[in-house]
Each structure stands twice: as C-alpha cells, then as structure tokens.
Amino acid sequence: MSEDVHEVYAIRYAHHKRRSPANFLDGDPHDVLQPLDYFVWAIVGPSGTIIVDTGFDDAMAQKRQREMIKPVRDGLAALGIAADSVKTVIVSHLHYDHCGNYDLFPHACYHLQDREMAYATGRCMCHQALRLPFEADDVVAMVRKVFAGRAAFHDGEDEIAPGVTVHHIGGHSKGLQSVRVKTRRGYVVLAADASHLYAHIDGGRVFPITYNVGEVVEGYRTLKKLATSPRHVVPGHDPLVLARYPAAKPGLEGWVVRLDVDPKE
Ligand SMILES: [Zn+2]
Ligand SMILES: [Zn+2]
User: Fold this and answer.
1) Ligand 1 center to residue 250 CA distance, Å?
2) What is the pLDDT of residue 47?
3) DSSP-assigned beta bridge partners for residue 44
4) Sign, CA torsion 162/98/123/204
5) Residue 171 Cα, ligand 1 centroid: separation in angstroms?
6) Given strand 186-192, what is the order of strands in its sheet?
7) Do the bridges between strand 7-16 and strand 67-68 make them parallel or antiparallel, or are there none, so unpaired?
8) Distance 251 CA to ligand 1 centre (A)
9) How far is the CA of 98 from the centre of ligand 1 (A)?
10) CA 236 to ligand 2 center in whole angstroms
C-alpha cells in the first residue's frame, strides 16, 4: 500500500423510520417511506486508523427515539479496530448523532472546525430552532477535551494525514466539515451531513435542518469537485450506501461496508 492510500468503511449503528416529507426543506409530494441510517466511518491506512464521527449511545437513542441497531464499539470491533487504540477522530459537526459516545476513544485527539465550536457554544444556541440538533452534554464533553489538550482545530481545508483532508462546507451546521480520502479507486469524499441522502446532492434539494441554505447547495458543488466522480461522494445518512457497497467481510452485510471499492450501481 502506498504511503497515502487508505481503506474506507461505513459502519451503520442506528436507524430512523420516517416519511420523505421530513427529509426535505420544502417537503416531498411523493410522501413515501424514506428512512435514515446512522453511520460512523473508519479510514484505515499507513498513518493508522482515523475514525470519522462517534455516533450516539443507547441512552441518546431512547431520548431521541432512534432505533439502535448495533453499538458503535461493536461495529469497530467487527473490523478489528479496538476503540481505545484509536489516536485520531474527525468530528464532522457537533449534532447529537455525530459526537456522542465521548468516552469511547480515550486516547484520541478530536479534529473539528473552529466555526463549529464557536457556533455550538455561542449566541446561536440561545435559539431553540438552532440548538435542536445539539445536546448540551455533547458540547460540554468537547469543551472538556479542549481543556484536556485533546482537540485540534481547523479553519477550512487542512490535512489530517497524508491522503486525508478535511474541508469546511457549513450549510447544515455552521462549521460542518467533510472528509476527502485518497483510496485505490481515487478520492472518496465522506460528506457526512453535507448531503444526508443521495437525493439531496443529486437533486440539489435541502435537508430541513439548515443554518444556511446557500452554503448547502454550494456545498454540493464543492463535494463533487473534491471527489474523483459523483459516485465517489458518500452521503451521511442514506440506507442506499449499504445496498451499493459490498460488505467489508462476509457476515457484515447491511452493517459494515467497504467504500474504497466501486459501488454496484
Ligand atoms: Zn447534522
Ligand atoms: Zn446527522
């Protein structure tokens, strides 16, 4: 494996049944079942293992009425990754479904955008409409990591390891970042919530939770520019990811898939 080429995996941990009007800013006339899956991602390469986002735990699943499928720790273990050996975690943004389980990686440094921390601890959180997808305990846990010397801040584009870069997108959350990874099939982009579903980036449509609509739709262009092809962009919550990509290993179908090989369709 060359110095900067990585394997990339999507690990599903939770699920939410919902209908399509809940997934688009202006609703959806088709009103069909369009559930969301919840993922964390693992990047495995010569610089070690990098985890993108940390998911939520059982207690949060109950509080937010989401269905826990398999705890994040189990998904990592299925890939042979011991959470306490992970040194690097990239946090796409601080919404409750991306930054929980904060004791799972006791030896990791957490990478996030300046703007996301400022947003999640500043005046915008005075407004219920904006703080809805955040949990105060999650934000406090990140503040504690800052004071423990276990956070690293980025302002826009930055390199985490050779072949792995973060890119500020904003839009859905003010400091949302996506991750570009060099793989054997080219540059794969883990959009996280810069595109919840393929339908968002493909149709130029917008998820209802949004800080800035202009940044969301500009973000789609950025994601496509960063990726080797549109088929290299991986949305953050789409069950189709599990259908399009092969299982990481036999037995992990519908749970852990490999993203550094071409999708089936
Ligand atoms: Zn989000
Ligand atoms: Zn999310």
Assistant:
1) 31
2) 87
3) 7, 49
4) positive
5) 10
6) 158-161, 164-168, 177-183, 186-192, 233-235
7) antiparallel
8) 30
9) 7
10) 7
Q: Which ranges constitute the DSSP H helices of the chain?
A: 58-63, 72-78, 114-121, 128-131, 136-147, 198-203, 213-226, 240-244
Q: Give residue 2's pLDDT.
A: 80
In the chain, the amino acid numbered 77 is A
| Distance (Å) from CA 25 to ligand 1 centroid | 14
Cα(10) to ligand 1 centroid in Å equals 17
Name the pTM for this structure. Answer: 0.97
pLDDT by residue (tens digit) across 21-56? 999 999 999 999 999 999 999 999 998 999 999 999
200 C-alpha vs ligand 1 centroid, how far in Å?
14
Helices 114-121, 136-147: axis angle to 10 degrees equals 130
For the CA of 237, the nearest ligand: 2
- Distance in angstroms (rounded) separating the CA atoms of residues 27 and 133: 19
Mean pLDDT of the 106-115 span: 98
Distance of CA 219 from the midpoint of ligand 2 (Å): 16
